[in-house]
Amino acid sequence: MVFSSHLFLFYFLPAALLLYYVTVGYGRLFALTVVSLLFYGWTSPWFIPVVVWTALLDFCCGKLIAGGVLNNPLALAQADGAIHNPPTARRRRWPLVLSVIANLGMLAFFKYTMFAEENFARILHSFGHEGRDFIVIVLPVGISFYTFESISYVFDIYRGNARPASCWVYERYGRSASDRMPWLERLGIEGKAFISYLCYLTQFPHLVAGPIIRYRDIERQLHQRSHTIEQFARGVAFLSIGLAKKVLLANPMGEIADSAFAAGGLQWHDAWFGAIAYAFQIYFDFSGYSDMAVGLGLMMGFRYPRNFRAPYLAESITEFWRRWHISLSTWLRDYLYLPLGGNRLGQRRTYANLLLVMLIGGFWHGAAWTFLAWGAIHGVMLATERITGKTSFYTPFPKPLRISITFLIVCLAWVFFRSPTLGGAGNYLLCMFGLGNPQPEAQFVQLELYDHYRLVIFAGCALVIWGGTQTWEFTRIITPLRAAACALLLVAAIVTMWSQSENHFLYFRF
Asked: Cα-flanking dihedrals φ and ψ of residue 433, to 5°?
């Protein structure tokens, strides 16, 4: 089920909101968890045990780090989240290692087994061996996102940056660390705590495509949040704008990109047009989804972090990653780059860490050599800019030129992200620089690329990106005029949605 579908907008969402608001207390968290699991398992129910297992494993690992599965964590966790009188370092470390191995192992199995099989088959074929059948694995939707979220929960408890989910429930029931409780009552409290953690991990607004939300940023909201008309109205505005980005802008740009990348050979200007169209598509598709996720969260009292901040206005690749997919870039920084040593172990190690983190970030997006190449390009650029003090080699140029050069570099990298193979990416890049071999049917492709409707949308995308107001700023104060604009966008998106055959979000496959 996707947000940009009549099934979600007219049936699932109204029913979910109705069920949410007619329940109270922990019943509300339970209701939200149930509808989220229903949303997740709508097309493939077998996905549900995978995410529930992930939640159960890391919930127990978090408890073990804090002193025991059924121990009252208030005996160890202070109100600010710091752990005092903790278990020994070894007893705290092994649940962390177990969580990381289990989560990354499951992610590797589902996401990278077939990639390994395909490359192994190619190696065998190169030595003259016949290929053989391999297992086919269906990738659970959103596993990359909720795996990272679950790992962050255990890491934050280990570091003392968050408390186990049980703490809030014990406090809610007025239980202190010294209280003696029957084990059945304690088990019941732990069950409510697990539901609250499962609710965090499976909330349908962010479950399948982010943003990557850390438990410490939302733990208080799971138990203490407000519901106001103003907040709900802002949520509807976010939802309307996000849907419009997806349906009115991203989908038409996707049609241009699909035609260009499937052509085989193009004139250089046609290839650039297709690459820029894909840059527009992936931005409006993903930022549109993030806007809708934020809006749905606000409608139920949750405040999710911002995931985009006008990334195509960046003046360097370093700045681009401060603006693009912020929840991923900060996750990679805090849970990978800094543990590897960050910039504390000398310049060479810093450059190596940057390259390694971006390679892993690229491979996280998909099991293909093209994603590794995409990550390598950004890693090399980040390392190069680090040499010059986090500034680009074109810093002396005027600001509009700095923005333009950064955007063109990003577009070149997007070619690898979009292409199914390295060979396809190489051929497309040759076309972009006038070194390709345009096919005779390229003139027919031009009729698709430069359709009048798509040209208007292309111009509209550029106007919104480089001259428009960001959703976060536009919705900060909902005036009658802005409310009318959001309503008009919502109606236009819904009407247009009925005429489009494909509405899946690009990041659903990650």
From this structure: -105, 20
**From CA 412, how far away is CA 358, in angstroms rounded?**
16
List the one residue out of 421, 387, 415, 392 whose CA is nearest residue 404: 392
DSSP letter assigned to residue 304: P
Find the mean pLDDT for residues 85-112: 86
Amino acid at 505: F
Helices (DSSP H) in 127-182: which residue ranges?
Answer: 143-159, 166-172
Tokens of 260: 């260009």
User: Comparing 504 with 197, which gets the higher pLDDT?
Assistant: 197
Backbone phi, then psi, for 206, in 5-degree steps?
-120, 5
Q: Is residue 359's pLDDT more than 50?
A: yes
Q: The pTM is what?
A: 0.92
Q: What backbone phi and psi angles, to 5 degrees, belong to 242?
A: -60, -45
Distances (CA, A) of 182 to 66, 98, 174, 256: 20, 29, 15, 64
Which residues participate in catalysis according to the annotation? 365
The per-residue pLDDT for range 5-22, each reduced to its tens digit, is 899 999 999 999 999 999
Please check the confidence at residue 58 and state whether its pLDDT lies above 60: yes
Which residue carries 């969260």 as its tokens? 297
Coil/strand/helix, residue 83: strand
Contact 281, 414 (CB under 8 A): no
Candidates 21, 23, 3, 26; CA nearest to 13 is: 3
Q: How far apart are CA 19 and CA 17, in angstroms?
A: 5
Q: Give the closest residue to 315 by CA, choosing from 209, 236, 409, 392.
A: 392
Separation of alpha carbons 164 and 64, rounded Å: 10
pLDDT tens-digit readout, 417-435: 999 999 999 999 999 998 8
